[in-house]
Amino acid sequence: MKLILATSNNGKIREINDLFSKTGVDFISLRDCGELPPLVEDGNTFKENAFKKAITVFKATGINVVSEDSGLEVFALNGAPGIFSARFAGEGAGDRENNEKLLNMLKKVPEEERGARFVSLFCLIIDGHASYFEGDVKGRIIHSPAGQSGFGYDPLFVPEGYDKTFAQLGGEIKNRISHRAVALDKLKKFLLSP
Q: Which sequence positions are flagged as catalytic?
């Protein structure tokens, strides 16, 4: 089965292809689809943003599509950065700037109040019909980046039950326990069910 994965984020593409290896589900990148209309993320929820991206790509290509919106919700910041996670420090800002802004906002927040969760919401559109798959993982934000693997807020996030960040745990463990892994497991079961 061929599906467009509606993202240009190389980290997400790599993670998802690893999780779906040997299943017969073949994800193609937006880069393989020619010119497409812009994918606008102006919804108020992860679900709205995932749907907007998926339906835009489906209408432009006629090919079944999967899109995702995901982010980090920090409880002490009332869920911020949330849907603005990728552009938290402003349009064009990278992971380093986003991480620095988050750490600055949490500077005076005590250890016991640094709880957070990563959320992942996938929208699958097959023949024009949308289905949704959500996953999350709870943890906490540490005081300075640690680890070299992963992307985004991975160097700051320690998942519950672990004492290392996603960036320290590495791809194999992260791909087993992450918010995206939970959501993709639900998507995989749906796609591979008879």
A: 69
Q: Rounded to whole angstroms, how far apart are CA atoms 128 and 149?
A: 36
177: CATH: 3.90.950.10
Domain count of the chain?
Answer: 1
pLDDT values of the chain reduced to their tens digit, one per residue, 194 residues: 889 999 877 667 777 877 788 888 888 888 878 888 888 889 999 999 999 999 999 999 999 999 999 999 999 999 999 999 999 999 889 999 999 999 999 999 999 999 999 999 999 999 999 999 999 999 999 999 999 988 899 999 999 999 999 999 988 899 889 998 899 999 999 999 87
Do residues 26 and 2 touch, judged by C-beta distance below 8 A?
Answer: yes
